[in-house]
Amino acid sequence: MKRHLALFLQAVGALTLLGLVIGGALVLTAGWWLRMDDAPKKADAIVILAGDVHRAIFAADLYHQGLAPVILLGRAHPGDRDALCDLGFPCYTQEESMERVLRAKGVPPGVLKLYGQDHMSTVEEAESLDRELGPKPRTLLVVTSPNHCRRAKMILSGILGQHELIMSPTPYQRFDTLWWRHQGSSGAVVSEVAKFVFHFLGTPFRSRPAAAN
């Protein structure tokens, strides 16, 4: 009995050590595997995933290159009211900020189309986008942050499987391959790796219960 217990504990220890080595390697190399950068091509629409407004700058670039006639943007959950709003400072919703960037970049009115409501996660964005697009297959240029590309592609592919997804990370948001040398990149890796773990072990944040199939 003692021998079996010792073998069991050794196996558990070996698996734990292996898990730590693999986990450490994945974190260390996150600057490579989190990034995806497909070659842009003609598409039916440009999709800006909610988040950093630098994504809107690149979406405008893609539009001016003539790669798609419309830009789609989901309405993000506004979150808690910022105390600065109560002091009279300008407080724009995320879609208002994106729209202001697009206008500043010369994107004509009417090109931007908003969809959905109160998205709290990429999963909710994908579900709303699926309803917005319908069953007809489309080609989509998906604009997001460099560190968000891998997880976004995984989520979108699972929900928008009939559509072709071209991941187009914004070059206006810095993300270093050697992420530990840059504070912003370090924070992005820590956040994104945690979201990957949560995606596999938890459930997506939702503003409302998921719709029944």
Walk me through this protein's architecture.
Helix 3 (54-64) packs across helix 5 (94-104). This protein has a 5-stranded parallel sheet, with helices on both faces. The chain is 46% helix and 14% strand. It has one domain (32-201): Rossmann fold (3-Layer(aba) Sandwich). It has helices at residues 2-28, 30-33, 54-64, 83-86, 94-104, 122-133, 149-159, 183-201, and strands at residues 45-48, 71-76, 112-119, 139-144, 164-169. The mean pLDDT is 87.
Write a brief structural summary.
The chain is an alpha/beta fold and 213 residues long. It is 46% helix and 14% strand. The protein has a 5-stranded parallel beta sheet with strand order 3-2-1-4-5, sandwiched between helices.
List the topology elements.
Blueprint: H1 2-28, H2 30-33, E1 45-48, H3 54-64, E2 71-76, H4 83-86, H5 94-104, E3 112-119, H6 122-133, E4 139-144, H7 149-159, E5 164-169, H8 183-201
Parallel strand pairs: 1-2, 1-4, 2-3, 4-5
Helix pairs in contact: 3-5, 6-7
Entry keywords:
five-stranded parallel β-sheet, 213 residues, Rossmann fold, alpha/beta, 5 strands
- State mean pLDDT (0 to 100 scale): 87
Extended strand count: 5
The fraction of residues assigned to DSSP E strands is: 5-15%
Helix content: 40-55%
Task: Give unreliable regions as ranges.
Answer: none
| Rg over C-alpha atoms, rounded to the nearest angstrom | 20 Å
CATH class: Alpha Beta
Largest sheet: 5 strands, parallel
Give me the CATH superfamily: HUPs
- Summed up, the helix count is 8
What's the CATH topology label?
Answer: Rossmann fold
User: What's the architecture in CATH terms?
Assistant: 3-Layer(aba) Sandwich
What string, H for helix and E for strand, traces the elements in order?
A: HHEHEHHEHEHEH
Major sheet: arrangement of strands: 3-2-1-4-5
Number of folding domains?
A: 1
Which outline best applies?
Answer: globular
Beginning-to-end CA distance, first to last residue: 50 Å
Class by SSE composition:
alpha/beta
